[in-house]
Amino acid sequence: MTSFEIRSYPFAKGAVSILSDADERYGNWPAVYTLRNERSIYVGESRNVASRIRQHLASGAKDAMQHVQIILDDTFNKSAALDLEAFLIEYLGGDDRYVLLNRNKGIVNGDYFDRAKYRETFQEIFEDLRSKGIFERSLPEIQNDDLFKLSPFKALTPEQAVAVEDILRDLLGRVPGQGHDVPIVVQGDPGTGKTVVAIYLMKLLADIGTAEDAELDTTIDDSDSRFAEFFTEGNRERLSALSIGFVVPQQSLRASVAEVFKHTPYLERSMVLDPFAVGESEKHFDVLVVDEAHRLNQRANQPSASQNTRFTEINQKLFGHDESHYTQLDWIKQKSDHQILFLDGAQSVRPADIPRSSWESLLEVAKSADRHHELHSQMRVQAGRGYIDYVRAILRSEAPGSDEFADYEIEMFYELQVMHDRIRERDAEHGLARLVAGYAWEWRSKKDKSLPDIVLDGYGLQWNRTTKDWINSSTSLDEVGSIHTVQGYDLNYAGVIIGSDLRFDTEQQRIVFDRSNYFDKKGKENNPRLGLEFNDEDLLEYVINIYGVLLTRGIKGTYVYVCDPDLREHLAPYFTQVRPGNSRPDLGKAPSKAIGPSASDAPGVGDRQRQEVRE
């Protein structure tokens, strides 16, 4: 039985002056409310909603609003009301039906008694509001959109909130116009929310810097907001004068982030930059926030001759001469007083990326200067952080830890078409299910669109036809995405094709790299300018990182197809098996040997014992 009520009023003094008399709960009960007009909406929460709305009317800050909606529920407590407020803010920000006027003052994603039951009620409230035209799209449609996934309108986890608060205090404590030798570094595994924190921080800085006088008035503020104390006149004056940029090295992710900034009040698409744009800019930045900073380049042969020329020209412009040791990180430091770097060294996927040794040195310095923050909580993969460690261990031929991943599908397929069919099923059910692969096949279809790129078991597929926002392109379900189209993105289900660039050496009893089956030219190119030659062991690390990224994209599940027979046999015990001729997973026994119906049996997921890596 529905326990909530949604009541509507005109947002006018005469209409709301009777609120306290209309229902005693308006003056002494946790409630959530919205203020809106045809274009914009604001969400609030209060124990005394009648007083709060009168304060909004008196302040004049929301004069353009026309309607009030109040959500009441006899079962609500303060925690539930705050959670509903955060829920509505998050989904309104992702729906894009309205311009969301809320500032990011910080509601933390905290637990409370019976939260799961309240969340069921929230979904009912969502559907009621959708029927009234407040939302345009369904919950799954919003959840699968990049605008939602990358939106700054999020309830942060406690550790994310601590990182944002510490960074904000750090920045506000610095002397204006004076740089700092040590960048702030935020480190985290795939799925820990680095990009969300980075974008949230950008929105928070912009919100403080553009806050109106009424928004600095604590009498109409929510005392439970984590960052409300930073909304002061002094901080507004300080931050409003700052030039702040958001740097994203990868082209595809950068385009998606720019689209989010375009739809977010107080952020602008022009804030989102690539490293070359930073180096060439005539502007000096007070703060540069760099997402996926492990993808910044050292001096190496760039994808085009024009970029090689630009690299030289930027070095000459910034340092007076072109020296080989200058990197894009040096550009970032030279062009800004303060740098905030979000990174995971284990996601470096090309030799042109700044090397691990540089990041390790930077991390040591940041830690010693108390400018290092680490994110641990797994926000993407439902299997939790243990799955990330599990994947990285088996790719490094190490014995992994626990293999118990409740409610997470982790399956090995022996027929590519069967895996593709499963991906199609999952996409129809949940959306955002895609095939991805290592760069173990030439991109023949780039020149001849009639040619398949990947042919396995007589089944042919093509690489991604676009490099920008491939996941959401109209043909993506029929294609295979590369590392360069999916790094930084979420999928509900990922079907990962592990190509023959990785093999299992039965004599050494470990995974090795096969250069002859690796077709990313920039992924194996030597660097004569720096005197660097990359042997197979060097490149193995990058390819392992690539597959580590691909295998950690799936929120609800990961499927794999392995090309090398010996590697397939080696990895079989770590996955539920989908046998040839059977599109459903076999939870009993799994093939331990190579491809084919005649493969002998080995322990399956339900009863397998984890094997120690043989020396």
TrEMBL record:
Domain GIY-YIG: 28-100
Coiled coil: none
InterPro entries: GIY-YIG_endonuc, GIY-YIG_endonuc_sf, Helicase_ATP-bd, P-loop_NTPase, SLFN_3-like_DNA/RNA_helicase
Gene3D superfamilies found in the cross-reference section: P-loop containing nucleotide triphosphate hydrolases
SUPFAM superfamilies: GIY-YIG endonuclease, P-loop containing nucleoside triphosphate hydrolases
Residue numbers spanned by region Disordered: 578-615
Signal sequence residues: none
Protein name listed in UniProt: GIY-YIG domain-containing protein
Source organism of this protein record: Nesterenkonia aurantiaca
